[in-house]
Amino acid sequence: EAQVTQNPRYLITVTGKKLTVTCSQNMNHEYMSWYRQDPGLGLRQIYYSMNVEVTDKGDVPEGYKVSRKEKRNFPLILESPSPNQTSLYFCASSLQGGFYGYTFGSGTRLTVV
Amino acid sequence: AQSVSQHNHHVILSEAASLELGCNYSYGGTVNLFWYVQYPGQHLQLLLKYFSGDPLVKGIKGFEAEFIKSKFSFNLRKPSVQWSDTAEYFCAVSGSGGYQKVTFGIGTKLQVIP
Question: Which of A8, A66, A73, A97 yields a CA-CA distance of 20 to 30 A from B76?
Fold first, then answer.
């Protein structure tokens, strides 16, 4: 089944403790992206990657890192999480750009206390 | 900069009522337009998309949207909603071709009352 797999689904952590949210897709998509979803703000892009070793900032990249060492994987790294990063995070992939239409992962609900 | 405006943030309808959710966009070029749906507790799924050609686009589950270029609009419609249509709906816009950024609206929550 074609899908984007995110882990974990839920995560509660403390301020400053580094964490990684994993994202993997099995569709051989070139384009992958991370979004955060907050009430009243919709989805905002954090980082995106056009292919292996090619990443760039989205609209809200502060406090996040990403890497794209393999085509299928695009982890999101929070080096020192803060409470304002409490949010619902989605990974998405697309054949080429997002204009083909995204396939989204199931989401990761992160709480930073 | 591209942007998307969804005017109705929360819509409540009775089953069998007709639905129209507004979406206006701002973009200085040829656009691709999308509607995504997010059912409670789930991820976003693509409902329909417009790339070119017929401005009336039909999607899954009986939804359709009409691209009106002169009004910069891409409204979502359904003739008769069901309780199972209760969800949040997001309009999105991107440029056409290449690796274009996708910008989402803030979403419209639809509640269908049985």
Answer: A97
Residues of A in contact with B98 (CB under 8 A): 96-97
Closest CA to B32 of B9, B2, B62: B2
Give me the amino acid identity at A73: N
To the nearest whole Å, the CA of A15 is away from the closest chain B CA by 26
CA distance A18 to chain B (A): 25
Pairing of strands A31-38, A42-51: antiparallel
Counting runs of H as helices and runs of E as strands, what totals does chain B give?
A: 0, 12
Neighbour tally for B49: CB within 10 Å: 19
Q: Fill in the amino acid letter for B27.
A: Y
B65 close to B77: Cβ distance less than 8 angstroms: yes
Helix (H, G, I), strand (E, B) or coil at A67: coil
Say yes or no for a CB contact (<8 Å) between B34 and A42: no
Give B60-97 pLDDT, tens digit per residue. 999 999 999 999 999 999 999 999 999 999 999 988 76
Q: Check CB contact under 8 Å for A99 and B95.
A: yes
**Per-residue pLDDT tens for A21-67?**
999 999 999 999 999 999 889 899 999 998 999 999 999 999 999 99
Structure tokens at A85: 């990063």
